[in-house]
């Protein structure tokens, strides 16, 4: 069954429209209900998903592979693309895209270079999903995050949301701010000065009439927020490791923070966490980050089925 997403790529959040978001969230909810009732899905029967990850991943890679398997399809993958593929022989991403199109019906790629997913898609003749390109974008995680917020908060409109941590290098917060910005939030961007949200994102949100408060005070922002989305300080993005050592541990979510936050605040994190959320917070009712990770399954099932026209 064709839809507005059939045959399309998901590469850039700016290309994702409200109707696309609604379709993905509705489809994911329906798939999740089928699985919860013990049902099985065969939308991708006989189809193949190619998973090409040139950067380390557990959650994203496994959720894509699990999503395809739960749709009755098959997976071919490489989890060390930079070391265990023809990239070591000089094959370009464009050529890899052309080659993969002869093997698979849809592909997902994660790469350390910004723009890599677009290069791959330029060569591919099958739908391509950006599973994260450097520090730039992670569009499917943003859709997972919207689905999580909708389930946890009962809706997406007019929420106060804090994005905290490494906002400079965090592709998840880059993508989420673009998509959630369509729903009229008030944003609090909390980070050290060195790790502020890129100015182009902040300014674009303000140009769209979205209220954005930039601060380094996590307690103040959390006291006014419905959702606190924490990210880790990303060591792998630092050229100067002494700067990383100085900034790591800047923000920590513990029960003292929760007690001083807005009542019922929802805590999210794209994972993996390091030292920015105490393990004791896992028992807090509003700690949604592992539910958030589980939501990657139905969302990516929906994306795969919709892009291939198998929904």
How would you describe this structure to a colleague?
It is a single chain. With 311 residues, this protein is an alpha/beta fold. It has 2 domains: 13-137 and 296-308, Rossmann fold; 139-293, Aspartate/ornithine carbamoyltransferase (Rossmann fold). The protein is 38% helix and 14% strand. It has 12 helices and 9 strands. Strands 7-6-5-8-9 form a 5-stranded parallel β-sheet. A 4-stranded parallel β-sheet has the order 2-1-3-4, sandwiched between helices. The model has no long low-confidence stretch (mean pLDDT 92).
What features would you highlight for this structure?
Rossmann fold; 4-stranded parallel β-sheet; 5-stranded parallel β-sheet; alpha/beta; 38% helix; 311 residues; 12 helices
Broad CATH class of the largest domain: Alpha Beta
Strands across the major sheet, in which order?
7-6-5-8-9
Helix content: 25-40%
On the 0 to 100 scale, the average pLDDT is: 92
Element order, helices and strands?
A: HEHEHEHEHEHEHEHEHHEHH
> Which residues sit in consecutive blocks of at least 5 with pLDDT less than 50?
none
What global shape is seen? globular
| Count of domains | 2
Biggest sheet: strands, sense, closure? 5 strands, parallel
Class per helix and strand makeup: alpha/beta
Beta-strand proportion: 5-15%
Q: What is the CATH T-level topology of the largest domain?
A: Rossmann fold
């Amino acid at each position: 069954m064709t839809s507005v997403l059939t045959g399309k790529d998901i590469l850039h959040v700016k290309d994702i429209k409200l109707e696309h978001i609604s379709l993905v969230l509705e489809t994911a909810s329906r798939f999740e209900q089928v699985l919860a009732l013990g049902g099985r899905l065969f939308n991708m029967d006989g189809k193949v998903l190619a998973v090409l990850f040139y950067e380390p991943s557990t959650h994203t890679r496994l959720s894509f592979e699990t999503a395809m398997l739960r749709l009755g399809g098959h997976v071919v993958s490489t989890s060390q693309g930079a070391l265990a593929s023809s990239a070591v022989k000089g094959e370009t991403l464009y050529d890899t895209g052309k080659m993969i199109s002869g093997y698979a019906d849809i592909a997902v790629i994660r790469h350390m270079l910004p723009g890599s997913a677009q290069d791959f898609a330029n060569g591919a003749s099958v739908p391509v999903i950006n599973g994260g390109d450097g520090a730039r974008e992670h569009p499917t995680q943003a859709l997972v995050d919207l689905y999580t917020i909708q389930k946890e908060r009962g809706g997406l409109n007019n929420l106060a949301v804090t994005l905290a941590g490494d906002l400079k290098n965090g592709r998840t917060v880059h993508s989420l701010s673009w998509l959630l910005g369509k729903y009229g939030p008030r944003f609090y961007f909390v980070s050290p000065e060195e790790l502020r949200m890129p100015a182009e994102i902040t300014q674009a949100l303000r140009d769209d009439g979205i209220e954005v408060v930039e601060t380094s005070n996590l307690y103040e922002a959390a006291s006014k927020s419905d959702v606190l989305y924490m990210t880790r300080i990303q060591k792998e993005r630092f050229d100067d490791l002494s700067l990383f050592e100085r900034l790591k541990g800047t923000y920590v979510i513990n029960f003292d923070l929760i007690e001083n936050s807005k009542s019922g605040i929802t805590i999210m994190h794209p994972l993996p966490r390091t030292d920015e959320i105490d393990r004791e917070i896992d028992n807090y009712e509003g700690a949604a980050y592992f539910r958030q990770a589980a939501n990657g399954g139905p969302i990516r099932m929906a994306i795969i089925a919709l892009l291939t026209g198998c929904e």
